[in-house]
Amino acid sequence: MENGRVISDLHCHILPGIDDGAKDAAVSEAILDAEARDGVTQILFTPHFYADHIEQDRFLRRRGRAFEKISQLCEERGIATALGAEVRIKEQLLGMDLSPLRMGDTEYLLLEWPFYGGYPLYGEEIVRNLLKAGIRPVFAHIERYEHLFLDEDRLRYFMDKGCIFQVNTATVLDPRTQKRLFELANKGFVHILCTDAHNMDSRPPKMGEALALLEKKTSREIAARILQNGDDLFHGRTVHVHDMPKKKKLFGLF
Ligand SMILES: [Fe+2]
Fold first, then answer.
1. How far is ligand 1, taken at its centre, from the CA of residue 92, in Å?
2. Which of 62, 71, 86, 92 could form a disulfide with 51 if both were Cys (CB 3.0 to 4.6 A apart)?
3. What's the CA-to-centroid distance between 140 and ligand 1, angstroms?
């Protein structure tokens, strides 16, 4: 809690030894310490799920065992926790029941688009299937895919269907990407800020720094609403993405 605000991290790879994130509990502990210093009090763990590599049941068992190794560390730091997954869009997802991979007990699921090979049409089918099953996709780090980051019509299309857009702290802090990201945030296309933390070296969490910069470059209202969305999502409340506060440029419209 910082200035009465609740800070949540709903996309991270802190669970030890399950994916390319924290390699052991010592790394997990260091990341959790950094999160606690930044005032993060709610963390939803989202290890990678690749449907062509591992069976869902086996993944869930592994995730449970990894969480057992650090649940006490979270308790000691006063961090509330929940389990989810970062589900990569693959053809194998078609026809699968993905509800066990939801973010905690909520109606949300963290969905990752492929980085290469363009825009897969079966991605849209997977999104439609999820929505039909009452699950709202949260698109992981929209800034990492050109077909979303640069195409506002496509963002609007998915937003109108009920999808939610997440961005990473690293992108907020990266001078190469931040300008576009702030522009999208000022237009209401950025709904959740998460760390996507993998370790303390190349991919540390940095929630505090990113939040402060985001607030400075957008507005207090936008930053506060992004935090509120994170808290709402963590607790399974409805996230309203169509009435995000917006900030116009000083001269003229966007
Ligand atoms: Fe991730």
1. 19
2. 92
3. 7
Report how far ligand 1's centroid is from the alpha carbon of 152 (Å).
22
Q: How far is the C-alpha of 234 from the C-alpha of 122, rounded, in Å? A: 28
| pLDDT tens digits along 162-206 | 999 999 999 999 999 999 999 999 999 999 999 999 999 999 999
Give 227 Cα–ligand 1 centroid separation in angstroms.
19
Domains and CATH numbers, the chain: 7-234 (3.20.20.140)
Phi/psi region, residue 104 (left: phi>0; alpha: psi -120 to 50; beta: rest), is left
- pLDDT per residue as tens digits for the range 120-174: 889 999 999 999 999 999 999 998 888 778 889 999 999 999 999 999 999 999 9
Residues 6+ apart with CB under 8 A from 18: 47, 62, 63, 66
**Gap from CA of 13 to ligand 1 centroid (Å):** 6
| Residue 161 structure tokens | 């269907």
Q: How far is the CA of 1 from the centre of ligand 1 (A)?
A: 24
**Which pTM value belongs to this model?**
0.95
